[in-house]
What we know:
By secondary structure, the protein is mainly α. 71% of the residues lie in helices and 4% in strands. The chain has a three-stranded antiparallel sheet. A hairpin with a 3-residue loop joins strand 2 (60-63) and strand 3 (67-70). Helix 4 packs across helix 8 and helix 6 runs antiparallel to helix 7 (124-141). The radius of gyration is 18 Å and the shape is elongated. The protein starts with 7 loop residues before the first helix and ends in a 9-residue tail after the last helix. Mean pLDDT is 86; it is low at 1-5 and 218-224.
Amino acid sequence: MRRAGDKLSDRLREALEEEIVTGALQPGERLEEVALAQRFAVSRTPIREALHQLAAAGLIENRPRRGALVAEIGPERLVEMFEVMGELEGLCARLAARRAGTADIAAIRAAHEACTQAIETMDVDAYYYRNEIFHERIRETARNAFLLEQATALQRRLRPYRRLQLRARGRVAASFGEHEAIMAAIERGDADAAGRAMREHVVIQGERFADLVASLSDSPRLRA
């Protein structure tokens, strides 16, 4: 499943994200516009746009005289990023629980329930996109523009890793259950519970981190 209105550059960015995070494109590898355009049978314009998105997300680096190179994110750095993401999204959930009106709660509930079909069919990609909408609705309901900006920026940087997490056995069903706890806390206006549930939902540690690393075990993408 893809969201309506996806651009070609978005699809190219996702394809390259996948290759970066799984190690098909290795840290330090150069990404050349011409070669990528030939490979994907597209013009250089959407390739350039996709590379710009990847650079903004911190997945590639633009270096003088060397061009675009795949960046390297070590496991410690990845854990740190998820910790910050957990705090930012936790704050969004806290504020959403305090500030949500009837229409806001209905929108969040609709986004949550839209994940059900993906759960039933075990369509991980479909669940990923609907999961993103659920999180977006909560960020928007927090009604804090600066927080929304910062949380969205980090979310984009972690996007391929969050997507990869969902491929671990049982993770989609667990994620949906965690969403229900977040949803229930927001509905009853319990800011502390909403923030705590969201933080625990996002932060990777223990078995969840081990699962993520295992999914990359054949890749040089994560290095000690």
